[in-house]
Amino acid sequence: SGHVAIAIDGPAASGKSTIARELSKRLGLVMVNSGTMYRAVTWKVVKDGIDAENPAAVAEALEKMNLQCGVDGLDSTLTVDGIDPGEELRSQEVNAHVSHVAAVPEVRRHLVDLQRSYLQHSDVIMEGRDIGSAVFPDTPYKIYVDADPSVRQGRREAIGEIDSVTDRDRKDSQRETDPLKVADGARVLDNSGHTVETAVEAALEILIQQG
Ligand code: C5P
């Protein structure tokens, strides 16, 4: 398509969203948080009383869902059956169920298609778990943002979120379809000791080398 994708992957609460958002501003690229899409499907599944641990039921619910993705300036937008779930995407219930929903192959297939479609319209910086390995495997721009588990769990607790990040990481790494891993060609950025400023500088340095 001629458009460029920058893939930012890594485990939960590694700081990849903050880095991706800052890169988006500095480089003027549309930023897409793919976790939001998995959370949106999970939000709808939970809301409709569907068992998130029943892959067949989740796949059936997905069939009936109208998931719309778009762009607003440098931000991406998303609605489920016309509704933007907003802050409900970060609820304790969504945190607890999202890794089950994200392991369903039909869910991944559908969301990966939506993620790839962004590239038809613009360059993107996209963050997630499998962006460099499965969504845009051919892009040269791949960063895997990691941090110590205690640092990551502490980040969630600091904002009062109830979320077992190590639990999600284990499920996300062990699933069969497109698990969390360091993609071929990705550079690892250890964010444990960084400030936002120095992390973004390190990310820009990696991108320059990959270009
Ligand atoms: O990035 P975030 O923590 O919001 O992602 C929520 C969940 O969505 C992850 O724990 C994972 O289960 C799923 N996810 C995924 N693939 C992606 C992005 C997120 O499986 N590319």
TrEMBL record:
Q: Where in the cell is it found?
A: Cytoplasm
Name the residues that bind ATP.
Answer: G10, P11, A12, A13, S14, G15, K16, S17, T18
Which family does the entry's similarity section mention?
Belongs to the cytidylate kinase family. Type 1 subfamily.
Asked if the record carries the keyword Transit peptide, the reply is: no
Record keyword Metal-binding present: no
What is the official name of this protein in its record?
Answer: Cytidylate kinase
- What are the recorded GO MF terms, alphabetically? kinase activity
Region annotated Disordered, chain positions: 155-179
Q: Which organism is it from?
A: Haloferula sargassicola
Name the source's superkingdom.
Bacteria
Where mainly located?
Answer: cytoplasm
